[in-house]
Specification:
The complex is a heterodimer. By secondary structure, chain A is an alpha/beta fold. Chain A has 8 helices and 10 strands. In chain A, the strands form 2 sheets. In chain A, strands 6-7-8-3-9-10 form a 6-stranded mixed β-sheet, sandwiched between helices. In chain A, strands 2-1-4-5 form a 4-stranded antiparallel β-sheet, covered by helices on one side. Chain B is flat, with a radius of gyration of 24 Å. The chains are: A alpha/beta, B mainly alpha. Chains A and B meet through strand 6 and helix 3 of A and helix 9 and helix 10 of B.
Chain lengths: 263, 266
């Protein structure tokens, strides 16, 4: 498959994260290694507490690994960088800024003029279909709309890698499938490397080129499953036999991990 | 059956009267209560009725002290408040930013905050002498304490994910302070200002309790010594009017700064 020949965009090399707390050492991540190729869409599933958010934060440069390292285009990650964008589960919009000002935030930091930033921001607000709400404050938007703004804001600074930490986790089922479809569409158009965390196995399969299953305590990679279903994928894809087969395969592993955690 | 109907009609009446109508009613009821107090023998001496109080307004103006008292008190309140605000902001941010500062300073603030200013006024006077200076110092201290606590809470309350979001969008430490922490804290700063002004006014009487030559609080005490009840009541009402006016002004100003906020009271 063509994707296999693509070069490595993000290299996660033997990453370990240990928290030293009052109750002693807690190994959050243990020996995580993963090569993410250019334009790949990686979904990470696993029980809560398996360290998937920790891993995302390390790739983003918001947390330091205890040992090991992350490389983007062969360059070691040290702190945050403009080539890596992040979308958070809690939207993290600045409540005192209107929709357009939120999207302009990163552009202004890049040193763009007001007009230039406005133009770019408008392009991405149109992409997520929120032109009507450019001058609204976040409090006036629904959860789904807020997350669309957050996605537009992340896209606007044109990162090469998009990191998403359960972005649709707080949304209702209908909004969630809608945003999945939109996200797939933009991913196919904009061709970015995506690293997407979710606890929803169906969501992972419908989006990903590869699904990474993590185990908990310590957080490790348990299995990596190639999703060979061709794009464009739609919600109907979820009815196909190959989808259901993959779902059973991944779900049974995740379920075992859930049971492990509950012990 | 007719009872329920009556209740409905009553509800209608309540919502039909506009807010300013209720304000008028509230004012009239207060007047009636005041009048009752002024004729009831046991309270009559403390609560002379409106005409007498208004007459005392003229007396105080003629004596040439009213404006002097008002301006003297306002100068102390404004100076004390400004000093309090200017010092509270950096201290609050330092406390929120640096843990050692927090661990050392916070207990002091909590401790002093619970002592009524009236108790330490004499100490201030011993060191600062009489006149304007001790007044300003006492108001400064009181407003500083309340505003520091409030602003500090605000800085601590800043949502960590907003800082992360700013950081991944390319914000450096300076940007995070100016573009995230500061705006996120504004509602608390505005609340601090409101509390600070109200504390400044309530502390005024204590601040003027020793050695002041003029001032609303000082005058009340001196009128007390000569048993002049009418002007005393007048001064108390003036202090109340100043308090409510400043609060209304701040509230108007507050709305402009915090339009974006999720929850709005009433």
């Amino acid at each position: 498959m063509a994707r296999e020949e693509r070069r490595v965009k993000v290299k996660i090399d033997n990453v370990e994260k240990i928290y030293e707390g009052r109750k002693g050492r807690m190994v959050a991540l243990n020996g995580i290694s993963l090569d993410i190729k250019e334009n790949e869409f990686i979904c990470v599933v696993g029980p809560s507490g398996c360290g998937k958010s920790t891993l995302l934060n390390i790739i983003a440069g918001l947390l330091d690994a205890t040992s090991g390292a992350v490389y983007v285009d062969g360059k070691k990650v040290e702190g945050t960088g403009p080539e890596r964008g992040v979308v958070f589960q809690q939207y993290a919009l600045f409540p005192w800024l209107t929709v357009i000002k939120n999207v302009m935030f990163g552009l202004k930091l890049k040193g763009m003029s007001d007009e230039e930033a406005k133009e770019v921001a408008m392009k991405y607000i149109r992409m997520v279909d929120l032109e009507e709400f450019v001058d609204s404050y976040p409090k006036e938007l629904s959860g789904g709309m807020k997350q669309r703004v957050a996605i537009a804001r992340a896209y606007a600074v044109q990162p090469e890698v998009l990191l998403m930490d359960e972005p649709f986790g707080a949304l209702d089922a209908q909004t969630r499938t809608q945003l999945q479809t939109e996200l797939l569409k933009t991913w196919e158009e904009e061709q970015k490397t995506c690293f997407f965390i979710t606890h929803d196995v169906e969501e992972a399969i419908v989006l990903a080129t590869r699904v990474v299953i993590m185990s908990a305590r310590p957080g490790r990679i348990r299995d990596i499953v190639d999703i060979d279903i061709p794009y464009p994928r739609t919600q109907e894809t979820k009815m196909t036999p190959e989808f259901i087969k993959l779902k059973n395969r991944i779900w049974s592993q995740v379920y075992q991990e859930y049971l492990e955690v509950r012990k | 059956m007719s009872d329920g109907k009556k209740q409905n009609e009553q509800k209608d009446l309540i919502s039909r009267i506009p807010n300013w109508g209720w304000l008028c009613i509230s004012f009239l009821v207060a007047m009636v209560l005041w009048y009752c107090l002024s004729i009831y023998p046991k309270t009559a001496r403390s609560f002379p009725f409106l005409p007498k109080v208004l007459a005392s307004l003229k007396t105080m103006i003629e004596r040439g002290v009213l404006w002097q008292d008002f301006s003297s008190s306002m100068i102390s309140v404004i100076l004390g408040f400004i000093l309090g605000f200017v010092t509270a902001v950096p201290v609050a941010f330092l406390m929120a930013w640096y843990r050692p500062v927090r661990f050392i300073v916070e207990p002091w603030i909590q401790f002093i905050r619970n002592i009524p200013p009236l108790a330490y006024v004499p100490l201030v006077v011993i060191s600062a002498g009489v006149g304007r200076r001790p007044q300003v110092i006492v108001i400064w201290l009181a407003t500083f304490l309340i505003m520091t606590v409030t602003i500090y809470q605000g800085v601590r309350n800043v949502d960590e994910t907003l800082i992360k979001a700013a950081r991944v969008l390319g914000a450096k430490d300076k940007d995070i302070f100016v573009k995230v922490i500061f705006p996120a804290t504004t509602p608390f700063i505005v609340t601090a200002v409101r509390l600070g002004v109200s504390v400044a006014l309530t502390t005024l009487i204590a601040a003027e309790s020793t050695g002041a030559v003029a001032g609303l609080g000082m005058r009340i005490r001196s009128l007390n010594n000569s048993f002049e009840v009418e002007p005393m009541l007048l001064y108390i009402i003036i202090i109340g009017v100043i308090g409510i006016t400043s609060e209304k002004l701040i509230k108007m100003w507050e709305r402009r700064f915090t339009r974006w906020q999720e929850k709005r009271e009433e």
